[in-house]
Structure formats: structure tokens, C-alpha cells
Amino acid sequence: MFYRPEDGHGLPHNPFNAIVTPRPIGWISTRDSAGRDNLAPYSFFNAIAYVPPQVMFSSTGVKDDRGDTKDSVAAIRETGVFCVNIVSAALQDAMNASSATLPAGSDEFAHAGLDKLECESINAPRVAAAPASLECKVTQIIKLEGASNHLVLGEVTGIHMDDACIKDGRFDVTTFQPLSRLGYRDYAIVKDLFELTRPDD
């Protein structure tokens, strides 16, 4: 089939997210200017550059108590920093719990039963049990097409890795099995790996 998005797809559910898969989950932690902590997962997330290391995530929703966006972007606008926490298979239920729509100022760490630690290079919390966390300072917030679409770009200023995940000098994802987002309500866990050598290596 072929369809133009402006005309609709005619299917029971939007297939777009199921086509662009798997997507890593950026579990974004922030602290607003009043000192209130927030945690929320975003599946429009990825690393985008090596030097300096940079990441992006996109927020596509809105809350009545946050104007044109959600709690994460609202806090980032105030402070200019955020932390990306990597979601392991063991944290899937806590990640899901943190996606609940709660009133502004609510602490999703507490709601999801998660311990937090302080970041080193920025004023924000991080998920204590995450296998890795990326401390970031905002470089740009770009308003995208659509009523409430915002792209947040950040430079990584500090990186935490669980020592248990480092094997033979590599950060071994099989030690924690990262969770990824698929379409609809589907997720996948990375368990099996294989290597490919580039033709010019």
C-alpha cells in the first residue's frame, strides 16, 4: 500500500512508529528551577555525533498544566540541562510507570519506586539503577512542525557506566539487555549480537 500522511492510512492504528523500529529509549531526568525532579521516557531519542558527543530527543505531547509541552521540556527550558538514563530489561516496569501523566511538580522517581543519584557535571538527578547515564547541557531546542513537537539537542558533559557492564574494555550491552521501543504497545529486548566488518576496515 501507499498513503500520504495528510490523507490518512486507513488502518486501525498508525503504522509510522512500527516502520521506524527499533528505537532506543531516552529516559530523561530533569530538575526544574524550583528544585523539583522529573523522569519520563522518550522513544524519539538517539545519539547524533561523536566529537563532541551529542544526543537528541523529541517531545511530541502537551500537558494542560505545562502550556505547549510536557514537564521535561519545560524544566529544560528553565535550567538548560538534562540527563539521559539507559533503560535495561530489568527496569522496564519502572520505565513504564514513569510514563504516567502526573501533575506538574510530581516526582516520577518516587512514583516508580526508583532511587536517584546526583549528576556530577549538571544540576539534575539520574536513575541509580541505570546501566549508563549521559549528563547533557542543552545546545538547542527547536520547535518542529505540529502543535506540540519540540526537538531537544544536547552536548554530553559527563558519562556514567556501571562497572559490571564493562567486559574486556567494552561496554557490553548483553550484561543489561537494553529495552527498545517498537510500534503500537510493542517493545523488544536486545539479547543477541553479531559483528559486521566494513569493507574499508
TrEMBL record:
Q: Which residues form a coiled coil?
A: none
Ranges where the Flavin reductase like domain occurs: 18-173
Cross-referenced SMART domains: Flavin_Reduct (SM00903)
Q: Which GO terms describe its molecular function?
A: FMN binding; oxidoreductase activity, acting on the CH-NH group of donors, NAD or NADP as acceptor
Any one Pfam family here would be: Flavin_Reduct
Q: What is this protein called?
A: Flavin reductase like domain protein
Naturally occurring in which organism (per UniProt)? Planktotalea frisia
